[in-house]
């Protein structure tokens, strides 16, 4: 099971970051492609902090610990000045990663519907892809949700919010990740209900995670 969880982890981060790079390239910015990030090689997407965190939590989950895996990969380089609409297109690029994970979770969940014997193989893929997607949609820099938020806000508010998130986003994120007095982090308590909802929709035959 540990091998399956690690395989699911590798697939999740690779699909996530490659989707960012692919979408940026499609929208006119070749920066990620020229940097070698338009790739299915997981090593080029490895982030020492975020990816190690996700891998560690994935292994803990494989060993039976009741944790919600979350983390991030190395950010894909994007030059918004290559886009026709920098704010909107940057948001689309950021959204591409989480959407790719949710799409993959949906596709592998169909395998469990048609081949029930493979359900134990499918569960890690669903949990990790949904967890990575939901975590990254939190509207804080440097997560994808921060750029999505900037892209959908009216222009007069977007720059103020972006300035605030650029200055304090990483601090807020680490405070949310730190365990509270109850043992779980605020961010786990925040995203767990959403992950359980997706899990129940995708694999209704199994108990909540």
Automatic annotation (TrEMBL):
Membrane-traversing stretches: 92-115, 121-143, 164-181
In this protein, which residues make up the domain named Peptidase M50?
6-113, 119-176
The entry's keywords = Cell membrane, Hydrolase, Membrane, Metal-binding, Metalloprotease, Protease, Transmembrane, Transmembrane helix, Zinc
Q: Name one GO biological process term.
A: proteolysis
Q: Which subcellular locations apply to this protein?
A: Cell membrane
Q: Which family does it belong to?
A: Belongs to the peptidase M50B family.
Q: What protein name is recorded for this chain?
A: Peptidase M50 domain-containing protein
Organism of origin is Candidatus Woesebacteria bacterium GW2011_GWC2_31_9
């Amino acid at each position: 099971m540990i091998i399956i969880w690690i395989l699911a982890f590798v697939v999740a981060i690779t699909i996530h970051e490659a989707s960012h790079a692919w979408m940026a390239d499609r929208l006119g910015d070749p920066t990620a492609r020229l940097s070698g990030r338009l790739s299915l090689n997981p090593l080029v997407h490895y982030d020492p902090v975020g990816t190690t965190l996700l891998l560690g939590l994935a292994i803990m989950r494989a060993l039976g610990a009741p944790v919600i895996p979350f983390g991030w990969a190395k950010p894909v380089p994007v030059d918004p000045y290559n886009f026709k609409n920098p704010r909107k297109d940057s948001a689309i690029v950021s959204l591409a990663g989480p959407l790719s994970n949710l799409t993959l979770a949906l596709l592998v969940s169909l395998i469990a519907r048609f081949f029930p014997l493979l359900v134990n193989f499918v569960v890690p893929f669903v949990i990790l892809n949904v967890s990575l997607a939901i975590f990254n949609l939190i509207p804080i820099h440097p997560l994808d949700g921060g750029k999505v938020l900037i892209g959908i806000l009216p222009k007069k508010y977007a720059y103020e919010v972006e300035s605030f998130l650029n200055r304090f986003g990483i601090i807020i994120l680490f405070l949310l990740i730190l365990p509270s007095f109850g043992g779980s982090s605020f961010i786990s308590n925040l995203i767990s209900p959403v992950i359980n909802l997706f899990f129940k929709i995708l694999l209704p035959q199994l108990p909540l995670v």
